Amino acid sequence: MRRSPFFPYALLAIAVLLWAGNWVFARALRFDAPPVALAFWRWLIALVILAPLAFSHVRQQWRVVLRSWRVLCLLALLATVFQHIPVYIGLRDTTATNGALLNSTTPIMIFVLSRVLFGERWSARQALGVAISVGGVVAIVARGEPTAPAGLQLNGGDLWVLFATLSWAIYTVCLRWRPAELDPLAMLWTISALGVVAMVPLYAWELASGRTVHVTPIALAGIAYMGVFATVVAYVFWNRAVQQIGPNRAGPFMYLMLVYTPLLAMVFLDERLQLYHFIGCALILGGIYLAASGRRGAAGARGQSNV
Predict the structure, then answer these.
(1) What is the DSSP string of 271-292?
(2) What is the pLDDT, as a whole number, of residue 216?
């Protein structure tokens, strides 16, 4: 099976399916587990499981970690605290389908940030792509109401998901500053450790305010799934496949999220697809295609969020 040319593609498809399940579980647990608790336990479980795998790499490269502590702290905050906690807050008020569709705007946000932060120029085709994708976001946020944007009362859940998406886009742009010599597994473990440490005071505040996990079988299963499958297994599968076939071939598999999440949400959450979902998805993907097919955009368009 591992020698089959289809094996890495199967790993990619499974990884994205596991990430899609994270959206569905997070939405299902909105009444049983507060958002900081979900993020904290997800990353703590992942940290414990990754420890024996990453230990030798971290031990050999601890000087690199210490030398790069500032950028690693920044990356940890962006990839854990500012991404996952807002997602779990947002999914209390918006659907898993809406969240996954809005999350797909990550490549467009990367284009915009590259322009704002680093002065990268756009072609007219790329600018049109950004505008079209923004139109898709408006269609989803406005729930397909053509007159809504004029007096729009935004869904707070949508805004939290967009904030998390922006955080991942900033993380992706900032990866250019990561220590190139640091082993990927050591980097993932270090980011996990720093993220867990950063979440400790937030989790303590959440507990002090009386918001605790309702210990039920579904809550325990959901948290275990997030930590084991949506984090460790999915990352290992994804990284293994990317190593074999390269990021350019792997990147488009992230768009399976737009198929997996609505289907899982329909089966397990009784969510229903509306016309505005199809319109918004078509505009977002069309805009990404135009922007990514431009001269300067191809690399940035691969930076999808996985959550």
Answers:
(1) ----HHHHHHHHHHHHHHHHHH
(2) 94
Could you tell me which residues come within 8 angstroms of residue 100 by beta carbon, excluding any fewer than 6 positions away? 20, 23, 257, 258, 261, 262
Backbone φ and ψ of 84, nearest 5°: -80, -40
Tally Cβ neighbours within 10 Å of residue 295: 10
The per-residue pLDDT for range 162-197, each reduced to its tens digit, is 999 999 989 988 888 989 899 988 999 999 999 999
User: How does DSSP assign 205-256, residue by residue?
Assistant: HHHHTT------HHHHHHHHHHHIIIIIIHHHHHHHHHHHH-HHHHGGGGGG
The torsion angles phi and psi of 272, rounded to 5 degrees, stand at: -125, 135
* Residue 36 and residue 204 in contact, taking contact as beta carbons nearer than 8 Å: no
Domain regions of the chain by residue span: 7-118+150-271
What's the CA gap between 281 and 287, in Å, rounded? 10
**What are the DSSP calls for 2-48, one per residue?**
TTSTTHHHHHHHHHHHHHHHHHHHHHHTTTTS-HHHHHHHHHHHHHH
